[in-house]
Amino acid sequence: MVYTFDKKNANAPSNHKTQYFEMFGNHALYHDGWIICTTPLNTPWDVTAEGTQDPANAFKWELYDLTKDWTEYDNIAAKNPEKLKDLQEMFWVEAAKYQVLPLDASKSARLLTPRPSADAGRTDYNYTGVITGIPPSNAPDILNKSYTITADFEVPNEGGEGMLIRLGGRFGGWALYLLKGKPVFLYNYVDLDRTRWEGKDSLAPGKHTLVFDFKYDGGGLGKGGLGVLKVDGKEVANHRMERSVPYTFNLDEDMDIGASLAESISNDFKAPFRFNGKINKVNVKLIPAEPLGKDDQKKVADANKKIADATE
Asked: Among 298, 308, 301, which Cα is nearest to 53's?
């Protein structure tokens, strides 16, 4: 597409002749001004919706002439069966070429399936200084378990302000920070509820250790627990959170230490919300929860079965 940035090519014909698409079993193909696409079986944002086990045949195809109908308003598949067939055959060639097959129409099961990870099984994470853009797949996974977050830092003479560590954003996540000198831990439950622990007093200039300790209730997914916020070994906030995110925080927000570059996880601040002091060390320690009960074991087994069925 670089050639399109040159003014002399403003009226040049497109070099982009063919493009396949696929997501959660929905699939499409663009070719020379035409596009075929499948009608979704359910809304994309409903990750709990049941997917079909036969995505290659369960979807209905649509056909549009983008040279005359760029908004894809007039579905002309019934009027042009030969064109539809030609583009369908081209889609399967492209899908095989780029390793799209087999199609997988599952949603929650597909999202939750464990992937290979460099930190699989790790329970102790240490960070020094300012680090931004840590992918969620390499960040500590605090879901459905107990955990302790410890930050060692220095408050400047003018008072402390800014992010110590954060993961997630508007639609879910957590953050440990100083707001007008006061320590805060905030948990964002999918933008429906925000639970916060906050100290009453601003931290004096100098070295401090801030700890948030969460004891998970256990007994399944998405349960609550007791959170305690401590400053230099002294408890400053203590209360329960009745529920937690069961499956995953939003996948498009990284983890930051010493700043918050993501879409706002809280109305307390705006990006980049850089910490104005010095971060010496941040530690996150994970404590695995008790084994899943029979009901949750069945949910996991059912999810794995859907994946196996869809990929046979």
From this structure: 308
Phi, psi of 230 (to 5 degrees): -125, 145
- Pairing type for strands 26-31 and 18-23 reads antiparallel
Q: Which residues contact 162 (CB under 8 A, 6 or more apart)?
A: 177, 178, 258, 259, 273, 274, 275, 276, 277
Kindly report the number of other CB atoms within 10 A of residue 105's CB atom.
25
**Cross-strand partners of 194:** 188
Under 8 Å between Cβ of 176 and 184: yes
Angle 137-251-229 from CA coordinates, rounded to 5°: 75
Contact 232, 196 (CB under 8 A): no
Query: Could you tell me if 97 and 70 are in contact, meaning their C-beta atoms sit under 8 angstroms apart?
Result: no
In three-state form (DSSP H/G/I as H, E/B as E, the rest C), the secondary structure along 96-152 is HHCCCCCCCCCCHHHHHCCCCCCCCCCCEEEECCCEEEECHHHCCCCCCEEEEEEEE
pTM for this entry: 0.68
- pLDDT per position in the chain (312 positions), as tens? 899 999 999 999 888 899 999 998 999 999 999 999 999 988 877 766 777 889 999 999 999 999 999 999 999 999 999 999 999 999 999 999 999 999 998 877 777 676 777 777 889 999 999 999 998 888 999 999 999 999 999 999 999 999 999 999 888 999 999 999 999 999 999 889 999 999 999 999 999 999 999 999 988 889 999 999 999 999 999 999 999 998 888 777 899 999 999 878 888 999 999 999 999 999 999 997 655 555 655 655 565 555 445 544
